[in-house]
Amino acid sequence: KEHLLATSQQLKDAGVVVCETNRGGDITYHGPGQLVGYPIVDLNALSLRIDSYMRFLESVIIDVLAQYEIEAHRDDCATGVWVGDSKICAMGVRVSRWVSMHGFALNVEPTMQHFDLIVPCGLVGRSVTSMRDILEDKCPNMSEIKGVVSDKFRGAIRRQAQVQQEPRS
């Protein structure tokens, strides 16, 4: 709650509702213009643990952004996907019996001013960006992004399943 910067009236004026959740991570924003994906994955079946699953999710989003010639990367100090020093995709998961819940929020073209109401992910002094900020008029629509994320995620799951099934030498 200490990372919520807005008053109740500011939130109301912006049309933002605060919802508490039991997923990992700090405060974040979900709204129109974001692709929010909550994959339900049996981590045991893929020989993943929480940390490796987070790196897996980051890799999928990095691959998606690369398709649009956006150079994205991980940050060793902060989970998520970054472009330069700005976060473009927040991540937070909850795992129960090694099945994942929650996931990621990729900023395609959200109302960026809504991020001014919080300290995103509790990362003081770090900025947030979106595909629209980077690509401007070349930003793909949400339907296209959904297809690309689905394809990249499906391919990454297949590769991980194959690695898990390969005989160990």
How would you concisely characterize the structure shown here?
The protein is of the alpha+beta class.
Strand content: 15-25%
Order of helices and strands: HEHEEEEEHH
Number of helices: 4
Radius of gyration based on Cα positions: 17 Å
Largest sheet properties = 6 strands, mixed
* Uncertain residue ranges: none
Estimate the global geometry from the Cα principal axes: globular
Describe this structure in words.
By secondary structure, the chain is of the alpha+beta class. Helices cover 32% and strands 21% of the residues. The chain contains four helices and six strands, in the order H-E-H-E-E-E-E-E-H-H. The protein has helices at 8-14, 50-67, 131-135, 142-165; strands at residues 34-37, 73-75, 78-83, 86-96, 99-107, 127-128. Strands 1, 2, 3, 4, 5 and 6 form a six-stranded mixed beta sheet that branches. A hairpin with a 2-residue loop joins strand 3 and strand 4. Helix 2 packs across helix 4 (142-165). The protein is globular. The termini are far apart. The mean pLDDT is 89.
List the helices and strands and how they pair.
Blueprint: H1 8-14, E1 34-37, H2 50-67, E2 73-75, E3 78-83, E4 86-96, E5 99-107, E6 127-128, H3 131-135, H4 142-165
Parallel strand pairs: 4-6
Antiparallel strand pairs: 1-5, 2-3, 3-4, 4-5
